[in-house]
Amino acid sequence: MQSVLTAAQMREAEQAAEAQHGMPSALLMENAGRALAEAARSVAGPGGRFSVVCGPGNNGGDGLVAARFLREGGARVDVALVGDRAKMTAEAKRNLRALEADGFTAQGLEALPTLGRGDVVVDALFGTGLSRAPAGEFADAIHRIDGWRAAGAKVVAADVPSGLQSDTGEAFTPCVEADVTVSFGLLKRGQVLEPGASRCGELRRVDIGLSPATLHALTGLVPRLVEEADARGVLPPRRADSHKGTYGHVLVVAGSRGKTGAAAMAARSALRSGAGLVSVATRAEVVDTVLSFAPELMGIPLEASGPLGLADLEPLLAAAEGKDALVIGPGIPRGPETGKLIAELLARVEAPVVLDADALNAVATDLSALRGAKRQVVLTPHPGEMARLTGRSTKEVQAHRLELAREFAMEHGVTLVLKGTRTLTVSADGDLYINPTGNPGMATGGTGDVLSGICGAFLAQGFQVPDAIWAAVYVHGLAGDLAAGKRGKVGLIATDLIKGLCDVWTRWDR
Ligand SMILES: NC(=O)C1=CN([C@@H]2O[C@H](COP(=O)(O)OP(=O)(O)OC[C@H]3O[C@@H](n4cnc5c(N)ncnc54)[C@H](O)[C@@H]3O)[C@@H](O)[C@H]2O)[C@H](O)CC1
Ligand SMILES: [K+]
């Protein structure tokens, strides 16, 4: 699990490293520059040349150190200094002098050679110190870097692609598009939040000497990036002596006339995610249609008619008996009493509950139901549903994803999944987990139903929140990535993700 920091926290780490652990920032820069040189070498072609474009701050300093290491390794290196030399930081100046003492002179941008395939540009213009949109000669430098990349050169960014806001992931115009980003110390939020994340290319985190104690002091407060090993670790290998009861029974309360597929996809996804048994409670008029999608499913016909309401309470409480997790929402017929029905179920059902889709819109009418729940509650809103839950606009939700999601999860004591690029899972204690898997091919009807089924299946198997949920989110995105790898993104449909789940299990030998 990678911790993800803000620029201020990085500076705090650097100062703490110096104050508490005698690790001078000069040594941090030396380590950063060395790692940067190694990354640049790793993507260069045979005999490739290197152009290092340095800004006036410590990010530029990293670039100057990298240039020195590259030269010492016998490579052909050019360095361009952009910005006012008088404004260079002390560390950067020191490293410029070290290069010049060795008979090397930095040049202006226009003097740099044209680069192409096999060559490498090191982007050391700006890092976490960027405070506004690059302009003037800095913008020119970024355009020049883009031109070299278009001509086939690889771009390696020092710490953050220049032009990217390291705290938010916002990309100014212009912003470097990197093939590799070498992140010093820990990950920065802007490297894992869109649109910044896709500007980074391959993200490599390197240790530069910030002490574990310093990092630990920081990492309690910051989002973590979920990695494949973390998600795989949540699912233990199956024991030979296990039986279907071992893997729990999921009750899916979903579906209505015209929306039987939503119920079927949530239910089939739960089956494909390892649940021992899956039952679907749905209106009697559609129960056979829902069951027709998978013979493995069992059905509980809800005899009342119209929207879900208090008339369904007793039948659903009976249906929930002996179940290990509930999933409520995909395709349900929502009406004026649905919120009250869900509140009653949350207060009385002895199993964790996943609320998705219209169950979220129903519970938005009275959020006190969440605190009244007997067991854990998991909400899986997309930004529009989150807007209804919080009374904010979708635009506001997207602009403050981390903060709003954390505030809601802690206020209502729930595990919250805020879907979108880099889906966010937040625990009731406010711990943030950022998901790196998934792709735009998943923007298609039904993928949310699939995720709710995976969540229900993991909870039914006894995996605890929040791990069960950030792992479900990871698996959901990985299934989508594997499916997109086979079928492309444009043609991807939600049932491809259900097939993709099996590719995850074979990949993980589970
Ligand atoms: N934190 C660590 O452990 C280490 C960090 N290192 C590197 O240092 C940079 C951060 O360096 P900093 O000097 O704070 O700022 P930058 O180099 O990112 O920016 C340069 C400087 O430019 C000014 N500035 C900001 N925005 C603009 C703009 N749009 N136009 C012109 N000038 C601008 C501002 O004054 C900035 O200070 C970090 O990313 C790492 O690469 C250490 O070297 C290793 C340890
Ligand atoms: K940079």
* Residues in helix, %: 40-55%
Mean pLDDT: 93
CATH superfamily membership of the largest domain, which one? Ribokinase
Q: Which outline best applies?
A: elongated
Structural class: alpha/beta
Fold-level CATH name of the largest domain: UDP-N-acetylmuramoyl-L-alanine:D-glutamate ligase
Report the bound ligands by name, code or SMILES: ligand LP7C6HRI, potassium ion
- Percent range for β-strand residues: 15-25%
Low-confidence stretches: none
Radius of gyration: 26 Å
The biggest sheet, with number of strands, parallel, antiparallel or mixed sense and barrel status, is: 12 strands, mixed
State the end-to-end CA separation.
Answer: 21 Å
Binding site for (6S)-NADPHX: 58-62, 127-133, 159, 262, 331, 382, 449
Protein name: Bifunctional NAD(P)H-hydrate repair enzyme
Cofactor: Mg(2+); K(+)
InterPro entries: CARKD, Nnr, Ribokinase-like, YjeF_N_dom, YjeF_N_dom_sf
Describe this structure in words.
The protein starts with a strand and ends with a helix. It is elongated. It folds into 2 domains: 2-225, 3-Layer(aba) Sandwich (Rossmann fold); 244-508, UDP-N-acetylmuramoyl-L-alanine:D-glutamate ligase (3-Layer(aba) Sandwich), CATH 3.40.1190.20. The strands form 2 sheets. Strands 7-1-9-18-17-16-15-14-13-10-11-12 form a 12-stranded mixed sheet, with helices on both faces. A 6-stranded parallel sheet has the order 3-2-4-5-6-8, with helices on both faces. The chain has 510 residues and is α/β, with parallel strands linked by helices. The chain has helices at residues 7-21, 25-43, 58-72, 90-101, 136-150, 189-192, 196-199, 212-219, 228-234, 260-272, 284-291, 313-320, 338-348, 358-363, 368-371, 383-390, 394-399, 401-412, 447-460, 467-487, 494-508; strands spanning 2-5, 49-54, 76-81, 120-124, 154-158, 180-184, 187-188, 202-206, 224-225, 249-253, 277-283, 298-302, 325-328, 353-355, 377-379, 415-418, 424-426, 432-434. The protein has 21 helices and 18 strands. It binds ligand LP7C6HRI and potassium ion (K). Potassium ion (K) binds next to β4 and β5.
